Give the backbone structure.
Amino acid sequence: MARFRRAPVLAGGGALPREHQVTIAERLEVLATRARGSDAGEPARRLFLVVLALLGLGLLLQASHASTTLPAEEYWSALGSQILFRAAALVSLLVGLRVGPQGLRRHVPALTVACLACLVLVFVPGFADPRNGANRWLQLPGLGLSFQPSELARLVLVLWVADRCIRLGDDVRDVRRGVVPMLATGLTFFLLILVETDLGGALLFLACFLATMWVGGARPMHVAGPLVAAGGTAAVFLITFVSYVRQRIEMWLGHAGNMQVDRTGDAIASGDVFGVGLGQGLFRNARVPYLESDYVLALVGEELGLFGMLLVIGLLIAFVWYGARLTLSLQDRFSALCAFGLLLSVALQAMVHAQVVTRLAPPKGMPLPFLSHGGTALVVSSLAVGLALGAARKPRGSQEAA
């Protein structure tokens, strides 16, 4: 990844000792300089448009999937629910934009306690809604609704650790006053998500929490150490003692077969360059599960081909680029730190989904933000982006003064 510039040659055949190696760090510094701007409004507007494009494409895919997998009498009901979910996602996006991180800052302690209680309630009869042997869902009695508290906890704990880093100032590097209390809180949530069991979700939570802590001023060793120790220990324990986790690792390594993994790969291959056509995919009717949710990128590859997959990946790259520009353009440190952690949580989730579908990572049920079947992840991802966009919104008083 390094490039060497040819040293000038003297007339006598000698060379001036001006050889310079361009490192990855220098490349990233150049990108950061290009991304940084004085006005966060412009990248915020473009990020908003990227999210709208992803939401629209997601609705199109969900309508296509439902049209050939459900009876006619169930199609409109399913499509209506998806429209409602995406309307709720849009409302969450706009509410987050209106409130912003600063609007939630005084409520962060209460929200943190509420998330902790919800993660405990997923194991309590009457509130628990176990599915497929995992306790990830919390049912709201009397309302007929359920959601995944771990998705919301990832968002709230980003706000919490950002607030702690700002309040601690230079003490964020102090082990006793800064590092240990923050790590104790983060690891408590990590363990609660882990025992649901949700190794992928727990590691995603820990990565977002520690990355925000590091950008907030913590020493790299205070971040890398817990990530390797806690994440590595949890992974080894689950691989050793939890059979389904071990089986997924074996699938990834090629030591075991799996119909879904194999067939989703075939679905992508069948799409060729431009796909078989929207609504013309055959693998959804070949009993390949979760093509509308955990493997929606495979559905894109089958119906829209390599072109469609590159379009989705291009939109996700645009999401990362405009998210970075937005974060680097914010003047308020708390808002910038929150925007970083919130947008990172969405970007990492998209990255894991793409890696799983393309077999670069072990099979893990994780939706692709804004495209997968609607639910908690869709609404929470939209809220996370909305809060990040809200960090760029100028208070009314400052606009009038200008």
About this structure: The first strand starts at residue 3 and ends at 4. The beta strands are 3-4, 21-22, 138-140, 145-147. Residues 78-392 form one domain. The chain has 14 helices and four strands.
